[in-house]
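Internal tracking record. Fields below are filled automatically when a chain is submitted to the structure queue. Please do not edit lines marked as system-generated. If the sequence contains nonstandard residues, flag them in the REMARKS field before resubmitting.
Queue: standard
Priority: normal
Entity type: single polypeptide chain
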Amino acid sequence: MKILFCSNEQFMPLSGGGSIGNFKIVENLAKRGHKVTVATPLYTDKKEIEREYNIKCEPFSPFYIHKNVSFRGPKYILYGFLFTFHFLGLILKEKYDVVLVRNALLGIPAVICKPFTKARYVLSFTDFLASFNFQSLYPNFLVKAFLRIEQFVPRFFDAVYVITPEMKRVLVKAGVKAGKIKISYDGVETSFFDPAKISRKNIAEVKGKLGFKSNIAIFLGTIDHHSYVKMRDIVNEINKRKIDVNFVFIGQGRKYDELRKDLKKHPNTRFLGYVEHSEVPKYIAAANVGIIPYENNYNLHLILTLKLLEYLSMGTYVVCTDLKSIRETFGKYPFVKIAKNNEEFIDAINELKSKGKSRQASGLIRKSFSWQKVTDRICGGI
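SYSTEM-GENERATED OUTPUT FOLLOWS
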């Protein structure tokens, strides 16, 4: 089949969970023998990507678009508007059997242009983009209006994939037929996040660089408004109570520098910024516990954050804020501690700081949450 794949997340270079998911879906489709055209931002050599992965690239980057850019909301909306013309040009130039869209931002231009193509329309949700902007600089009535549009757009698609049961319930409540919604879950590259590939020597080297011998808690990912305050308060309270825990922060984000400035007084913190992707599993392997100190907000209750799956794939225990989808999917397992407040979060870190690794955790991720399993669910339904 000829498949047109659309996303506002860059295809290459990989820049986080969204782009990794896009890459894995496209890779799986191409391996199944489909002719895939990728219409996304692309910030690397087009011809090299086409040769290596046996795909066709029709990149669209009228301006730099990335999840960490300033004024992300308005730029995303402008990108979606401009993408309408790019999308129309593609479907008029070539007939596609399937149009696969990641998230509703580009689902809107796809629906507008639907009368010009007879393709099967498939929408894959990883989150609702509008809901990240609640309690931000944007007026809530505008955010709610765009959120309603995001949840209305799936009605016009032939099939919809979501990453949690809660997302399905929300869309059904919004009027999307339950029968067209399938739960794909989210995935992790288990061949990469594999504890068997990390030696004791690797772990010793990481600990030597950090200057920490034990009791390591790691945070991996974007430090933004949804994690900054809670993370700051937890680290400060642990130091106030003189609990022996060392913190490692890997990633970037709009609140990264602010958090580093707030916590620089504590000798038990290390801020590594961006770390080469190939090195990340070593740091998770060296850690005793992975932390997800997110604020309770609408969107975070709907998703399974990628860092959770990466921690668990490495067999590392996890402490997480009480987020609905994580509790529903992983709350019954002993390797995930759900904390209702900062006090419980701190107690859970203290409890898990001397734990080893959980084979049950890494085994579960390999069985049900590898990218191969997730993309098989999506690609098999196309």
